[in-house]
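Researcher: Next sequence.
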Amino acid sequence: MVSCMIPQPLLYVLCGAAVGLLIGLTGVGGGSLMTPLLVLGFGQPPAVAVGTDLVFSATTKLAATAASGFSRRVDWRIVARLALGSVPACGAVLAWLWMAHRTPLVLDAVVSRCLAVILAVAALALLLQPWLRQIGLSLTAAWFDTAQRHKVAFTVAAGVVLGAGVGLTSVGAGALGVVVLLALYPLRLTPDRLVATDIAHALPITALAGAGHALLGHTDLRVLACLLIGSIPGILLASRLTIRLPAAFIRTLIAIMLGVVAERLLFGNSLARVM
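Model: Next structure:
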């Protein structure tokens, strides 16, 4: 748990700014870093951390989508395909959470373990991004007609997985979404369009999941306000810097952080303090 001379509200503002920069630069960071940070760093209950982060992510992604959309970097057709699967899947998870919310200890345990697993998967996926893109290029070249014919179905199916992950853990829309888009659309999306499209798709499902968690009482409004004060300037600045930074370095750094966080959630002592 965070313990230093800096006032806690200011720490939340600084964390929001740092995560906002990462969201704008890579499309990753909303749930992947903020949720475990709230759990491990600030001692928030897992369900409350997820709910607070979802509203935070939806707001920051709205700012990033506006910045990207105005410059015509978003591929809205791909966003629609993903949302066709992700929005219903997220709604189904929220329905389950509504039925399970009367047993908060069990709910926190499920959320914590699912969060750890999906963070570990996201870390591995980020490290394998270059190879996944090469696989996507090879499959597109070898079976072009077949790949094109089934690409919509694959995209919708990927959306289902992303929507369920976001609804339960707040993770997936950025960390796994980028990897999915790289594998399915290696030729269609340039790096800046990849990030912009991933952020645009994350907006509706994080907004839906955030609203659902808020209705369940899983949102800390004071923490949320501090996070947003820092994140909005950070994400708007990052949207201007996307193509100038070494993507491989940032991707590897985030993957290492996600791996460490997953290990702490599964085996560390911090989880025991919040359960």
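Model: The longest helix spans residues 144-169. The chain has one domain: 8-274.
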